[in-house]
Design a protein that fits this description.
With about 260 residues, this protein is α/β, with parallel strands linked by helices. It contains nine helices and seven strands; from the N terminus they run E-H-E-H-E-H-E-H-E-H-H-E-H-H-H-E. Strands 3-2-1-4-5-6-7 form a seven-stranded parallel β-sheet, with helices on both faces. The longest helix is centred in the middle third of the chain and has 29 residues, at about 105-130. The two termini are about 35 Å apart. The structure holds NADP nicotinamide-adenine-dinucleotide phosphate. The site of NADP nicotinamide-adenine-dinucleotide phosphate (NAP) has 29 residues, from helix 1 and helix 7. NADP nicotinamide-adenine-dinucleotide phosphate (NAP) binds next to helix 1 and helix 7.
């Protein structure tokens, strides 16, 4: 299938590492031009070199700051005078629980995980409307399944799913499609940091993998990227307001299968 993404300009937040980096690599492989927006300048620079400086762009920004969201979008649109796709992906599972968190840390978690999805989309909207582009929001199973000790991240991811349907409705007249991708267990730098917080990370990993129905393995970043690119592409031209789970059946299949 030709995804017809050649020459399309796609902004990927948190695009320097993990799932975002896989989306950028996949976009470049489809001859699209990924714009990597990330606060990690070292990782962003390395990925830009890997993809090729003429085939991608990097913008350094901490998206927890609304002004940096605005600047990052402005710079991204200026590169080619257009924007065809937006992937809201930057986020971090920061373990702000009900008991072990504080109201201040809860608000901070929403700033890191939710508010910039709105800010970046708001600033990107004029360009996306001009191109009748597409938006993909990366959410998490935690929005739907609960995990414990992660109120901020869960609230943010639940909000992201709500905004996906809300924006899909609001942007119908503009022809801008909005969908969400929901991963569960994907080995990335973020996941490695989360695992490292357990007394026996390897044992924790083994116990999780044993419960993933399809293949008893982690989802690959490339698998999340492939679904994301499909949703960005004209091949998904009549798909909007949808949640696509890329999780090996983790959320929906019968517990007996695990
Ligand atoms: P990752 O490995 O930490 O990569 C995310 C990238 O985004 C990092 O380069 C990170 O920089 C950057 N970033 C984070 N917050 C940022 C901010 N405020 N401004 C600019 N850049 C920022 O994470 P990942 O595992 O690929 O996760 C990507 C998305 O998938 C997240 O939304 C996450 O919630 C979601 N997700 C992941 C999993 C999983 O199993 N991995 C499961 C469900 C959902 P730093 O290194 O400086 O933090």
């Amino acid at each position: 299938m030709d995804l017809q993404l050649s020459g399309k300009v796609v902004l990927v937040t948190g695009g320097a590492q993990g799932i975002g980096a896989a989306i950028c690599r996949a976009a470049a492989a489809e001859q699209a031009v990924p714009i990597i927006v990330d606060r990690d300048e070292r990782a962003g620079g390395a990925l830009l070199e890997e993809i090729g400086i003429d085939r991608a762009r990097f913008v350094a920004a901490d998206l927890a700051e609304p002004e940096q969201c605005r600047e990052a979008v402005t710079r991204s649109v200026e590169f080619f005078g257009r924007l065809d796709g937006l992937v809201n992906n930057a986020g971090t599972n920061d373990s702000v629980g009900l008991e072990r968190g504080t109201p201040e840390r809860f608000r901070e978690s929403l700033r890191r995980n939710l508010l910039h999805y709105y800010d970046v989309t708001h600033y990107a909207l004029p360009a996306l409307t001009r191109s009748r582009g597409a938006i993909v929001n990366i959410a998490s199973k935690v929005a739907l399944t609960g995990q414990g000790n992660t109120s901020g991240y869960a609230a943010a991811k639940g909000g992201i799913l709500a905004l996906t349907r809300e924006w899909a409705a609001e942007l119908l007249p503009a022809g801008v499609r909005v969908n969400a991708v929901i991963p569960a267990e994907v080995m990335t730098p973020l996941y490695q940091r989360w695992l490292a917080g357990f007394t026996d990370p390897q044992e924790k990993l083994r116990s999780i993998v044993a419960r993933i129905p399809l293949g008893k393995r982690m989802t690959k970043t490339e698998e999340v990227a492939a679904t994301t690119l499909f949703l960005l592409s004209p091949q998904a031209g009549h798909t909007t307001g949808q949640f696509l789970f890329v999780d090996g059946g983790y959320v929906h299949l019968d517990r007996a299968l695990t």
